[in-house]
C-alpha cells in the first residue's frame, strides 16, 4: 500500500549541528567542515541510491560542489545559533522503480529552485534490510539553503521569509499538497490504483486516531525490545522494555485496524443491499426483454401464416383462372363463374402473375391409308381461351339482361315482401330494407336475399362476440392479478430480508462502538510487557 510522509526540519547551529556534516551523511561522502575544523567521513555508509545538486542557472560553479557549497553556507552565517539550512524528508511509495523515484525527486527539487531561488542538495536512501530497517523505507533528504541566489550568482544578503512564522504554515502546507499531487501522478502513470493524501485523519474525517512520532531513539529501543523477545525467556534482559510512546502507537494502530475492518464490513453490507436492488432491476429488465421477444416471435409467426395463406390463395386463384376455359360455356354463361374469374384475374395481376393459356391442340397427321384414299383427318377444334376484356364484355351483357328482367318484377316483389314482413322480420329489418331501396333501385335478388339473411343473423353474432370478448377479458384480468400478487409477495420477502440484514448491522455496530468506548476508557498498564507487531512506516534519520 502506498504511504505518505513529508516532514520539514531545520538544521541549526544552535542545536549543535553542522550543515557540512548533514550533507556528508546524506550523500555518503567525506567532507571537511572549515567552521569546526572536523572531517566528516561517511564513505562506508550504504543505502545511498542517488545524489544531486539543483541550483538556478546563474549560480557560480563553485557552489555546485558539495564541499564548497555548505562551507560557504557555514561561512555566511555568523551567529552561534544561526539557521543553516532547511530539509524536506519525504517517503517514496514502494510501487515506484529507481528511475521513477529519481524523476519524482527531480520534479520536486526543480520546483523548489524555481519558487524560492535556492540551492538544493538531495539524496535518495534505500532500506537497510540487513540492519532491521523496513523493506519499504525508500526515502529522500532534500536540503536547501536559507538564502536565495542573487543576480551575481552568490547568496543574497538577507534570508527569504517564505518559511517564517507568518508564512511558514501556508508554505509547508502547499509543499505537502504539491508532493502528494506528484506522487499520485506517478502512481497513475504506472497504472497503480493506490493514492496518497497530505491531509490528516482529522481533516479527512474518517474517525481514525493519529500516532505520535517515535523518532530515532524510540525506534532503536523498540528494535532492541523485539530482539530480546526473540530470545529464550531465561536469557532476556528485563531492563529492556517497550517505550511508552511505542506501546501507545501500537494500541492506536490496533484500534485503527479494527475501525477500518468494521467500516469495510459496513460497506460490504451496503454493497449487498445495492447488489440486491440491482438484481431486482436486472430481473425486471429480463422479464420485459423476454416479453418483447415473445411478442416479436408471435408477430413473426402471424406474418408467416399470412404469407402462407396468401401464397395458397394465389395458387388457388391461378388454378381456377387456368381451368376457366374448360368450365365456361359462351352459349350458356354462368354469372358466378365469370365473376370469380374476374376476381382471380385481378388478384393475379396485382402480384405480377397471369393465368396460363391452354396448350395448343396438335392436328392429327394423315396416315398412309388416308393419303392413298384421299380421306382427310378429323379436324379437332382448339379449346377456347378468353381474355379478360372479352370476359368483361360478356359479364356486362349478362348484367344488362338481368337488370332488364329484374326491373319489371322488383317493385312487385318488394311490395309483396313488405306485406308479409311483419310476420317474418322485425321493425329494424323492414326499415333498413326500405331505406336501402329508397337510395337506389339497383339491388338484385341475390343482394336482397343476402341482406335479409344478414339482418337476421348479425345480432346473434354480435351478442356471441361480446360474450367471447368478455370471457377473454376476465381470464386476462385473473392472470394479471395472480402475477401482481406473486410480485408483491416476492418484494415483501426481499424487504424483510433487507430489514433483517440492516438490523444485524445495527446490532454489530452498536456492539463495536461499545467495545471501542470501553477500550478508550480502559487505562494502559505501562508495566505490562506486550508483544506488538513492528510498525511499517518508520524512517531512519
3D structure, described in words:
This protein is an alpha+beta fold and about 550 residues long. Among the domains are: about 5-200, BirA Bifunctional Protein, domain 2 (2-Layer Sandwich), CATH 3.30.930; about 325-360 and about 380-445, no CATH class. About 60% of the residues lie in helices and about 10% in strands. It has helices spanning about 20-25, 65-75, 100-115, 170-190, 200-205, 215-230, 245-320, 325, 335-350, 370-375, 390-425, 425-440, 445-520; strands spanning about 5-10, 30-35, 40, 50-55, 85-90, 120-125, 140-145. The strands form two sheets. The protein has a five-stranded antiparallel sheet, sandwiched between helices. Residues about 420-425 have low confidence and may be disordered.
Task: Produce a short descriptive summary.
The protein is 58% helix and 8% strand. The chain is an alpha+beta fold and 541 residues long.
